[in-house]
């Protein structure tokens, strides 16, 4: 259980500590497609591919306009994490969040099931107080045979709802090849 909590915590911190790797001048209504590590998804044309050092991250994008002036780091990011299935999908998910929510910095907002590309997936939305910065995250868990993909959408709590359309675009266009 601690392994999954630490993985999500490290992923969150690393993503928030990662910089953006490119910048483009595209219009707000344009999109780009990221295809790498057997996954693909559409993301906003004004966003960039982000560099994440977390071990399980296989793809990441960020909004360069969300860069914190003091840290130089993007605060609105989406990462895709790949894990090997251990036990059952439901127990892996439950164990992860049991451990995560035992930390008082994390507060569950909602939890449920979604259908994406004809597959039922698990969703968990929560907030975290990371050293005084309030962050809201939406995690989508997808099982593909013995692999588990986690799409983690993160933004400042005050900005999260404004990013819903962008997060939904990424989640709804997500494909595993």
What does this structure look like?
- By secondary structure, the protein is α+β, with helices and mostly antiparallel strands.
- It has one domain (2-176): Protein Transport Mog1p, Chain A (3-Layer(aba) Sandwich).
- It has four helices and ten strands; from the N terminus they run H-E-E-E-E-E-H-E-E-E-E-H-H-E.
- It has helices at 2-17, 89-100, 157-160, 164-173; strands at 31-36, 39-44, 48-49, 57-62, 77-84, 106-116, 119-130, 133-144, 147-156, 175-176.
- It has a seven-stranded antiparallel beta sheet with strand order 3-4-5-9-8-7-6, sandwiched between helices. Strands 1-2-10 form a three-stranded antiparallel beta sheet.
- The radius of gyration is 15 Å and the shape is globular.
Binned strand content = 35-45%
Number of domains: 1
Q: Can you give the mean pLDDT? A: 86
Characterize the biggest β-sheet. 7 strands, antiparallel
Unreliable stretches: 1-27
The first-level CATH class name: Alpha Beta
> What is the ordering of alpha helices and beta strands?
HEEEEEHEEEEHHE
What is the fold named in CATH at topology level?
Answer: Protein Transport Mog1p, Chain A
Based on CA atoms alone, the radius of gyration comes out at: 15 Å
Output the CATH homologous superfamily.
Mog1/PsbP, alpha/beta/alpha sandwich
Structural class estimated from helices and strands: alpha+beta
Total helical elements: 4
- Number of DSSP strand runs: 10
In whole angstroms, how far apart are the ends? Answer: 29 Å
What portion of residues is helical? 10-25%
Task: Specify the CATH architecture.
Answer: 3-Layer(aba) Sandwich
Strand order of the biggest β-sheet: 3-4-5-9-8-7-6
| Backbone shape | globular
